[in-house]
Design a protein that fits this description.
Helix Hairpins, four-stranded antiparallel sheet, 6 helices, three-stranded mixed sheet, Heat Shock Protein 90, 3 domains, alpha+beta, 9 strands
Length: 308
């Protein structure tokens, strides 16, 4: 006859310290069993049940939960001051518009009116710069947070239906002014037919990748050059896809450096010295991870001194 006697639920931890460089910890549940033999003698049997896998799984689950909370908290903490900054800019813009509207009603001479218009133009220009900068800063923060999410294995997508028109409007808003200030021509080419369809994917992630690609083109294209975003529909294996191409007339990339582009924290020495001394070297690597997650592909073609 065998009967259970107060099963021990406390975990037993055993460390193998024979080789400190490869020490291994194992976890067991200890169970005690009372055994009655044929001659009526009694004894106890102690069984160790290996629960190392379960323990590690619980630890990993707790770690992932902690990381989820951390990223959500950090993301919130970053967004709060940036949102406050954007709201402040909007408030300043409204107050300036109210003031200008009031001044227009006054009987001012032509010189005062011209001066007022010049001030208004300057304020509007600085407002756009501040608003764009805050959005690009938030974009950089998203890249950094996504890097941590990829490393933690908790990166996720949010796929919904969207219109290309909304995407193009956002891209134009962010880059038309910057391109103009640097003396570059920025163009978006897309067929009118494509604007009538609705697409399903993670619009935020697509926009994030395009921001990275176009920002790179801005860095490495000299005054007088051009940047073009082409959007087209392609068919492969009876499936239809959208293809986004960002082309610039910048400094180009040497053939031997093309393989370095999508590696984390990789910056090309030649470009770093010339134009991009403050780059973090994560934008293209994050872009590739995002595109891979979306089931797509990202490639680069370039000729040094001519285009990318």
């Amino acid at each position: 006859m065998i009967e259970m006697v107060k099963p021990q639920q406390n975990l037993v931890k055993i460390s193998n310290s024979i080789d400190s460089s490869e020490s291994k910890t194992m976890y067991f549940n200890l169970k005690s069993i009372k055994v009655t033999w044929e001659n009526n003698k009694k004894s106890f049997m102690h069984i160790f049940v290996d629960t190392t896998g379960i323990k590690k799984l619980e630890e990993e689950k707790a770690k992932i939960n902690c990381q989820n909370i951390m990223f959500a908290s950090v993301s919130h903490e970053f967004r709060t001051p940036i949102n406050a900054f954007e709201n402040s800019l909007q408030l300043i813009k409204l107050k300036v518009e109210e003031l200008m509207s009031h001044l227009v009603q006054l009987d001012l001479d032509s010189a005062s009116i011209d001066k007022m218009k010049a001030i208004d133009f300057s304020i509007q220009k600085f407002f756009k710069m501040g608003n764009i900068s805050s959005k690009l800063l938030m974009h950089l923060i998203e890249d950094i947070l996504d890097l941590g999410k990829f490393e933690a294995g908790i990166f996720s997508l949010n796929e919904n239906e969207f219109d290309l028109k909304d995407l193009i409007e956002d891209i134009n808003y962010l880059f038309l002014t910057q391109s103009k200030e640097k003396g570059l021509k920025f163009t978006v080419n897309v067929s009118d037919d494509l604007l009538h369809f609705t697409y399903k994917s993670d619009l935020g992630r697509i926009k994030q990748v395009l921001l990275n690609l176009i920002s790179n083109s801005l860095k490495f294209t000299q005054r007088g050059g051009s940047i073009t975003l082409d959007i087209e529909q392609i068919t492969e294996s009876y499936e239809e896809y959208l293809k986004f191409s960002v082309t610039d007339t910048g400094v180009g990339i040497p053939f031997e450096d093309l393989s370095k582009l999508f590696k984390m924290f990789s910056m090309l020495d030649k470009h770093k010295e010339k134009m991009n001394q403050r780059g973090a070297g994560i934008g293209l690597a994050i872009s590739k991870k995002i595109i891979d997650s979306l089931g797509g592909d990202i490639v680069v073609k370039s000729e040094e001194g001519k285009y990318s």
